[in-house]
Amino acid sequence: MSPYLAATTVALALTLGGCSSLALGAANLIENGNARASTIVYGDGAREQYDVYRPVGDDGELLSGPLPVVIFVHGGSWETGDKDSYRWVGQGIADEGFIAVLPNYGLMPERRFPGFVSDAADAVAHARTRLAEWGGDSTRVVLMGHSAGAHIAALIAYDARYLAEHDLTPRIFSGFVGLSGPYDFVFDTELLQRTFAGTPEEERNALPVNFVTPQSPRTLLVMGRDDSTVKPRNTHLLAARLDEVGVPFDTLWVDGTHSVSVGAFARHKRGDSEIVQRIREFVLTP
Q1: Closest C-alpha to 154, from 231, 260, 241, 281
Q2: 3-class SS at 64?
Q3: How many CB atoms are located within 10 Å of the residue 203 CB?
Q4: Is the overall model pTM greater than 0.90, yes or no?
Q5: Domain 3-284 listed as CATH 3.90.1560.10
């Protein structure tokens, strides 16, 4: 390993302890995956685009389908973040032999709740119409998100109203993976007030835990035991609700803070990561 790359790897290991997309995006510096990437426009807004990563084999050719698909929604406290900062996640998913879709969505303050969830649902619906041409398997589509992205993805997975706008249901997903997500929280900060506060019904609509039903997709929840950005109680409460209504689910608790769950996809970590292994198994399970 070159001295520069070694220094970059050390710096990356340190920055992954934080939670900003800028820090997480440092993983792009050492990412050199071979996936074929393209950008697709799904709407008229400047941020209404998503990136698609298609896996290639040892011969440099695209893998033939049908391949599982993972749609990853980035975090950033609903007001920051960009798909470009998570290229390493797209490459990491593709390295597993899966097609990765990474959408952007509108951000606060221009796009308040539920607007950013609707944007992400629009991206999901649009991507679904293109799966066949990418070699994707429409029966194996897993929705995954980190932090605020896990919150957005959970609402799409559990609250059927978002996909109903596209004549779809959450049954299009073979599963949902939540990484360090807020699912049942109180609006006790300025950010949360600005983003979600409204009538009691509007505030209820912001909490994914309120929409879990027996028909909800099977779920994997990954959480760092020492997360102080999103309280671990969110995972406990969502798991309890899933158990209550009989949705198949599993939880994976790992040592680390807020970024440990998504940081597992960084190139220097994913080879022996229990998190990546469990997500791989989850995606491949019928």
Answers
A1: 241
A2: coil
A3: 16
A4: yes
A5: no
Give kind and range of the element (H or E) at residue 202. helix 200-205
Provide the pLDDT confidence category of residue 30 given band limits of 50, 70 and 90.
Answer: low
Query: pLDDT tens digits, residue range 258-267?
Result: 999 999 998 7
Which amino acid, 205? N
Q: Over the stretch 240-258, which tens digit does the pLDDT of each residue have?
A: 999 999 999 999 999 999 9
Domain ranges across the chain: 3-284
**Residues linked to residue 252 through DSSP beta bridges, in sequence order:** 222
How many other β-carbons are positioned within 10 Å of the β-carbon of residue 254? Answer: 17
Q: For 218, which DSSP code?
A: P
Instruction: Give the pLDDT confidence score for residue 268 in this predicted structure.
Output: 67
Residue 3: cis peptide before it, omega within 30 degrees of 0: no
Closest residue by Cα to residue 114 from 224, 197, 173: 197
Tell whether the model's pLDDT for residue 235 goes beyond 60: yes
